[in-house]
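Minutes, project check-in

Agenda point 3 was the complex the collaborators sent over. CS summarized: two entities, 999 residues total, and the question is how they sit relative to each other. Sequences were read into the notes so everyone works from the same version.
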Amino acid sequence: MDLKNVASLTFFCPEIVLSATILLIIALDLIAQSRRWPAALALIGCLCSLIVSFDLYSAQPGLLFHRMIVLDNFSIFFKVFSLAATILCIFMSMGSKEIDRVHEGEYYALLLTCTLGMFFMASSSNLLMAYLSLEMVSLGSYVLTGFLPHSRRSSEAALKYLIYGGVASGTMIYGMSWIFGMTGSLDYSAIQLALSQEGINTAALFIAFMFILAGFGYKIVFFPFHMWSPDVYQGAPTPFTAFLSVASNGAGLAIMIRFFFPGMSKLMASGDWAFTAGAEWPQVLLALSMLTMTIGNLCALNQRNVKRMLAYSGIAHAGYMMMGLAILNNEGLAAILFYAVVYMIMNVGAFLVVGMISNVTGDEDIEDYRGLAWRGATVPAICLAIFLFSLTGLPPFAGFIGKFFLFSAVVKQGGAFAVLAVVAALNSAVSLYYYAKVVKTMFLDSPAPEDKQVTLAANNFTLLLPLTFLTVLFGLYFAPLVQYTNHSLRFFIK
Amino acid sequence: MQNILTYMTFIPLAGAAVVLALPNNAKLVRWFSAIVTVPPLLMAIWLFNNFDRTTANFQFVEDYHWIPAYNISYTMGIDGLSVSMVLLTALLSFLCIFASFGIEKAVKGYFSLFLMLDAGMMGVFCALDFFLFYVFWEVMLLPMYFLIGIWGGPRREYAAIKFFLYTLFGSILMLLAILALYFTVEPHTFDMRIIMSQASKYSTAVLPIWPFSVWGWGFQHVIWMALFIGFAIKIPAFPFHTWLPDAHVEAPTAISVILAGVLLKMGTYGILRTNFPMLPVATADLAYWFLGALGAWNIIYGALCAMAQKDLKKLVAYSSVSHMGYVMLGMASMTTQGLNGAVLQMFNHGTITGMLFLLVGVVYDRAHHREIEGFGGLAAIMPVYTGFTALAFFASMGLPGLSGFISEILVLLGTWQKYPVLTILGASGVILTAGYLLWTIQRVYLGPPNEKYLKMEEINGREIFTLVPLGVIVVIVGIYPSIVLDMLRTTLDSINALVIPHLHG
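CS then shared the predicted structure for the full assembly.
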């Protein structure tokens, strides 16, 4: 199916619903100054969009809008994924004291704009579309990072993010221009056709790929484009940090998988992907993956601020997920999708507790968590411990299953990838140290006399307990989720 | 009884959940936890009676689909190797609940975690699916970390994280090895029985990578080593043993008993359950110069370290390192006596060291220190207590008539046929053991009584209750070892038969 503009609209409902919600929020924000409705409206919009997204599974996969956008299970998966992350973020924002209520309308409008951009990131089948969608997400993110008024740290983070983002996307579009120069097209399938012909300068292609990798690297947060993330994570409002850490990372993975796999490589009958010989990007990804997880974990060891620590842990997790890209098989990609879902649950869970605690203490230093379990916050402390152990990859939590699938994909590929598996395994052991440090502070340390009692209202638990439940559930019974992610790994290739 | 192993594993887990829901009454929580450990103990006794000693097959097998798409199943079953460990776990868990009655801080949390630990240990010994085995193996870590970290001594945080990091490091290598085995077996499965039956598939062709090419290692050897490191950390084999003294010294008494009595056994159990039958060629290649030598070195090194200790609990901890060396040495011999002796030593060490830690706990509760030099003449002050101590010390030393003697002599007999040099080294450990234990008895129990402790309370009924069952077992196994050996023999012979054809010369 290859549709023109008007015919495409039928299959564009999730985006339309979301756009309508955004416009409605902006318009109503001018009229009504009530405090609660923007969040509720955004939530309703997301839920409607979610429902119509699921409805698309019955549609035939194909290309929309003159081959700009592709509709397949993979793009629907990431629509659902981004919406889930957005819904979690809205829930978190509703309970957060950081979000300045005066700007609620703007905040939610911008948040949904980011989500809309992520929809396009996962489904663009054209270099220009990919670039524009990436920029759309970035622009919204810059503003939301600096959204805390009178917070120097927030403004600093936004500026850093902006500069890094500008450089990365500039590099990326430069790389895209090389590809356009070599192949004469921006369309993925046309590019692939041109690349498979004789006479392509593979060295130039390799360089172009490296430039493009800068843009992806900055979104997924891998080495050496990771420097912005700790400052941004620390400075941004906590609900948005949670959103950034999972949704932005997930969308980055989506655009990268779409570009490198159905875009630039060929799927063999064996389930392995064949890339253009000479442009050895998988080796680069392999090295970057090892470096990313090692650097992320080592830097996280000595962090004193929980959000910074989680930022570095996020870098490490990006490294783990990249393993699935470097091994060039479908098991790896399926493992990435599974890991992304699990990572969303446990990481948002962790940020949720961090946000709850900082609502009370006003701070995110690990030191403030001293004896938390004995200061009236036993349940959040236990939940945070579960999320952190899950991030470490300990059974019976979902994070273990995620790592299990990633590792098994790598081990299955065998050969030199065994080194990658060993490096990743050692990294997991290292990561235990800093995750357990927080657990230690919460449970093993006794509270100091000056530490306040932490009392939390019941509404804090409405999201926390389901997330904890899911973290344990997917650690013990993950068959449905595996089925769903495997099912989602279907690309429409012309 | 169908599903008996599942009940034994999950009754404590259910108990752990119920404990959390109980009202905040320490007495109620303690007694409830004690009652929860009774059914597994009764079931263990039932297993002891109904276990078929004539077959090497797995018994009481339960097999349910878990994640069929990946051939992950919930498979439980026991053979001669695991049944003794299941008995030991059930018994020690029951006794240690009583040994924990003195815990005052966050009682509900303590007993809940303790019961979780119980479930994890039971699961490790019963699991026949590698995935399930790994899950239980790791699940055990979390309660252990908190039990040492919250209820431990002054340096508990350091000890807890050290234990945690060491074990996780080992188990994650183990995970990679498990995955490598999974992808070699056709059809891909985690079922240990199928992995064992396809042992010939794991290539022994020398890998063309340095340093494996120099050592003559193939895929099988690398996998063997990855599994071995995971298990060696638990044993703990030199040089991975340094977490043990820290963990033991800081852990509360009951947790020390569980650590030494059950957790250390998981290492050697794992080697016999997986390395031997699944990777027989590598086992045969590495048995002598690696496993056996490491065992002998553990015996001597542990004994020498024990001799140098000033802290009574650290001494017992290092004596564990030494005694687990006999297990490794016996396993490496690949003889009937050696293997039987090794597994019997695992069982005996569990009971004897359990007693030793309980006894150390008794004086620590009264004197609030464990300095060997700080006591003296306790025999005059606490005669009953000293009687129990003498029994445990002499059993640990290998005095004929007590259980330690039988297993050590079997190990040495078995090893002598293969490696005389290692046997002589190992046997010298017996002398060193006698040295440090007798010297300790002399310093702590004999001589003029220490003025400070003249009024020290004699051992009480609850403490005697925890010691008597272990003491009885030590004596019975010492006089009539067949009671345990009969269960082991058939299984161990069949495991041995898998490896022997691959031995050189």
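Noted in discussion: Residues 286-505 of chain B form one domain.
Follow-up: revisit at the next meeting once the mutant set is ready.
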